[in-house]
Amino acid sequence: MENFDPAIVNPLIALIAGVIILLVPRMLAYIVAVYLIIVGILGLAAHL
């Protein structure tokens, strides 16, 4: 993981979430909720 690029995280999460939503459409609300919570926490943590 020495060449880890943080810019790849969002597209990777979006790709995985998209595949899961296609396979299990009922998971959409949970995936969106978890994503928003994580982004919110990371956004707030950056300011503290």
What can you see in these coordinates?
73% of the residues lie in helices and 0% in strands. By secondary structure, the chain is mostly helical. The chain has one domain. The chain starts with 8 loop residues before the first helix and ends with a helix.
Oligomer: single chain
Runs in which pLDDT lies below 50 for 5 or more consecutive residues are none
Name the shape in a single word.
Answer: flat
User: Termini distance?
Assistant: 27 Å
Sheet bearing the most strands, described?
none
Total domains, how many?
A: 1
Overall helicity: over 70%
- H-E order: HH
**Alpha-beta classification:** mainly alpha
- The average pLDDT value, as a whole number, equals 83
Structure annotation, total helices: 2
Query: How many strand units?
Result: 0
Radius of gyration: 13 Å
Strand content: under 5%
Task: Give me a quick take on this structure.
Helices cover 73% and strands 0% of the residues. By secondary structure, the protein is an all-alpha fold. The chain is flat, with a radius of gyration of 13 Å.
